[in-house]
């Protein structure tokens, strides 16, 4: 086995982990992922690329571990000997981070430090350089300090999640500057897909819409509809992660579309697409409000474009439609158009719960 193309991904079972795995496998990498032990299967998003480890030449291998467990992270690093590590694992829900702040900080903040320190020691002992990608977030910008937000915009985090991401960001910079490690931060704005977790607002809407069309659900309860986000397509965004680790020097990059839209606009496009009026179905529930909100995010991806040659390929409207198509298809309902549909090998799991948080 050559050492040239082995990658390790934390958070491989998440939205981004699944797309990144596909990308790296296409590029000829041997992909190793860290998964958590759960009482039910949590590998739905990667089942279509999973291979029986008893076979020869398997290219996707999974290891049990957790970002809160430094000993295991070190053991996996020694075993896998990756040349690139993508740290995507996180308690990634902003609203939930207000309910579980300490766990969120441990996973997102301390988890990143544990991994960075494991890599530092591994490099010192073996002399092998490992390139590290940190999944930073536009949530770090939080309260609007500048429009659009770019790499030099000051951070003003507004949630335990965002505070922990800021810590992880600076720790990643610190390992680069203190020890000369190749550690890069992506500052990624919201990115979505048919694989998006069902409790994030975009997927919550498209999933509910499909269930409304299918007659399984009557109401959709949401919180603040006024906030604005810069939404892109997850499959585009994982390419930027890979590109960051192929550069001569480690650096930090904003990855965004440069456009912003409100939740109401998302509702307009998605419901109009199936000839419904969202105002007939959407109701307010204060439980979905956050103690502090991030009102407006819009990123400036100029540096990513100039230095990485990265650009988004899917428009906002196409993104909304491909997500609606994905959820309609998962219920075997016909899609208004097939032109924008993501033909996805991943089968979206048919969660039978009526509502999701
Ligand atoms: P998801 O929530 O879909 O996936 C998170 C992943 O992290 C899952 O694989 C999850 O495992 C894993 N995980 C959770 N807790 C732990 C832990 N304690 N130890 C190890 N793994 C853990 O997130 P996305 O794929 O959407 O995002 C990927 C990363 O990018 C995250 O760090 C997120 O914060 C960040 N990010 C995401 C953006 C977006 O718009 N999607 C924008 C900017 C940053 P399990 O499946 O078992 O729950
Ligand atoms: P965000 O995404 O907080 O931006 O974090 P989310 O989709 O959860 O919220 C976006 C906006 O929608 C409003 N909203 C609701 N949100 C949810 N989840 N559920 C609702 O019912 C609802 N109603 C209104 C929110 O208040 C918010 O303003 C995502 C995550 O992927 C992070 O991990 C990532 O870092 C950032 O994007 C960039």
Automatic annotation (TrEMBL):
Its cofactor is NADP(+). One of its GO terms (molecular function) is GDP-mannose 4,6-dehydratase activity. The keyword Metal-binding does not apply. Residues 8-323 form the NAD(P)-binding domain. Residues 336-357 are annotated as: Disordered. Gene3D superfamilies: NAD(P)-binding Rossmann-like Domain (3.40.50.720), UDP-galactose 4-epimerase, domain 1 (3.90.25.10). Its EC number is 4.2.1.47. CDD domains: GDP_MD_SDR_e. It catalyses: GDP-alpha-D-mannose = GDP-4-dehydro-alpha-D-rhamnose + H2O. It comes from the Bacteria. Pfam families: GDP_Man_Dehyd (PF16363). InterPro entries: GDP_Man_deHydtase, NAD(P)-bd_dom, NAD(P)-bd_dom_sf. Keywords: Lyase, NADP. One of its GO terms (biological process) is 'de novo' GDP-L-fucose biosynthetic process. HAMAP family: GDP_Man_dehydratase. Catalyzes the conversion of GDP-D-mannose to GDP-4-dehydro-6-deoxy-D-mannose. Belongs to the NAD(P)-dependent epimerase/dehydratase family. GDP-mannose 4,6-dehydratase subfamily. PANTHER family: GDP-MANNOSE 4,6 DEHYDRATASE (PTHR43715:SF1), GDP-MANNOSE 4,6-DEHYDRATASE (PTHR43715). This is GDP-mannose 4,6-dehydratase. It comes from Limnofasciculus baicalensis BBK-W-15. The lineage of its organism: Bacteria, Bacillati, Cyanobacteriota, Cyanophyceae, Coleofasciculales. The gene is gmd.
